[in-house]
User: What shape does this take?
Amino acid sequence: MSEFIQQLINGLSLGSIYALIALGYTMIYGVLRFINFAHGDVYMVGAFSGYYLGGWLINSMGMQSSVLLLVVVMVGAMIICALTGLVIERLAYRPLRNSPRLTVLITAIGVSLFLEYSGQVFFGADPKPFPSLIPDRTITYGGLTFTNKELIVLCVTVFLLIGLTFIVRKTKMGMAMRALSFNSTACSLVGINNNVIISFTFGLGSALAAAAGILSSLNYPVITPLMGLLPGIKAFVAAVLGGIGNIPGAALGGLILGVAETMIVGYGDKIHVPPSYRDAVAFVLLIGILLFKPSGILGKGTVEKV
Amino acid sequence: MRDWSKFALLGAILVSLLVSQFIHLDPYFSIVVVNIGINIILAVSLNLVNGYTGQFSLGHAGFMAIGAYTSAAITSFGGPRWFDWLGGINAFTTSTLFVVALIVGGLAAALAGLVIGVPSLRLKGDYLAIATLGFGEIIRVIIQNTDAMGGSRGFSVSGIYTTIFWTYSVAAITIYVVVNLVHSAYGRGFLTVRDDEIAAEAIGVNTTKYKVVAFVLASFFAGIAGGLYAHFIGYLTPEGFGFMKSIEIIVMVILGGMGNTVGVIFAAILLTILPEVLRPVQQYRMVIYSLMLIILMLTRPQGLFGGLTWRRSTSWLRRKKIPLEDGSAA
Assistant: This one.
């Protein structure tokens, strides 16, 4: 039993990373109705900004690994990524606002490849060790052992989720976002500047991806320019699983995916599934949900209009 | 169209036979030529799904992998028995073995295409793209975990059978089948699915069936291309058939212009030669590719060769101006 709870905590910790990335997918889908393929690479950019910012603060500014350092690095990376998101939206997606969806999808793939491979040119293709932003500590409680980093990942995710819910539910900006995802034409008729809201959403989603990049690098401290590819795709699966366009759904989908993956690694042998199949779990879940409930767990079905 | 297309097909096969028998290219050049042929098969077959039927598939490399591994398994495990049975290794036994292996590889890929296509082609646009991407990755993970085929260590193919003749004969057949299919009365259905799915359904076109047919056929040719690739490169790794390979093929289709076979052939040639030319700046190759993709979508979404058709590209033969498809003069 204690082993199961241990696995569950590992799964939730992994799932929160997916959830944070999935939130960006789902918000951008909500306002623009397209999949931002480059979102997983924004997560990579977040991890690399953390790598350089953390290295600079530790080596040049003499900061010790502490909670303060983590907060500073995380906020810095979130700002850098928010700006990256804004630039991507402005240069690549805004000119295509009225183009066919396929054109936008291909552009998004192009942006994703561009970030990955210019990352390889600028950062180098070799894996880099992520600086230790916070001292390692192991917590033992009632037969369970987990690291403080896993707990930090969970706590920060919950904190960010509450913050996001506040922005979306209680602020004017959030109200405009919801209006835009409901009906963009009517939205501009009542005097909302759609472009401003879309830019804001991109910034917000990219900042969450940056937070995910830092948090996951705390637990798995090796970063490469291609690290965003697989988590990006899996987070998209999480967003679809919860119902794309639905914010609580994305968080739920991420957690389900993280737990499912960890359980396959932990208990897969008992049902003759080797742990190396963990990357296939996401796609099996995706295909299952698309076949039985394409609108996702929390999503509402839509009727196609002619 | 159909009057001369059979002759064109036979001519192309004959020319490739003559070239591979009588002209001795230096090894580096013939590697590039065979790669061009394999890429033409992949791009033209994917164009049937992505271009003519308008379904965005991101898993073409997965079907190529199935064809490659199946045919490699047949020649490697079945080859010795086949040679014993037919009396030794000679031109006849190797060719028959190779053809059987290619066709079985293609059929295996087509079967996978059917199994994958029936559920996933209910999805539209972005969802289909992700689902096919997912299937492509699942195929790769399964190969990685199959010890009989070497797993992630890779698999050595026992014979190098692929020649310019085989590659270009298959390429010619692929082009022949795709072009004639799309221009047949039956094949117009593919275009209706792309242009307006709801209207197509309203006039009684079985859109799901058309999508599945396009998908299965494209998978078949991808499988054969995989078989050619396996018996040319001689060593297979699951990583070689990942997401990036699918993207490479898609870039060819997009650059050539979706639903434009001539353009796609040109793009396949261009994008196979380009990496060779760009070898001095190899680390920038993918950066250039991705920028090309973005700029192309922003400025010329119909592709580099959009508007170029069989009729227009051969119009100098007839000395007559052919108007563009949208009615404007060339």
In short: The radius of gyration of chain A is 19 Å. The beta strands of chain A are 128-129, 138-141, 144-147, 222-223. The interface with chain B takes residues 34-35, 92, 95-96, 99-107, 109-114, 116-118, 120-121, 229, 233, 236-237, 240, 274, 276-277, 279-280, 282-284, 286-287, 290-291, 294, 304, 306 of chain A (CB under 8 Å). Residues 28 and 152 of chain A are 27 Å apart (CA to CA).
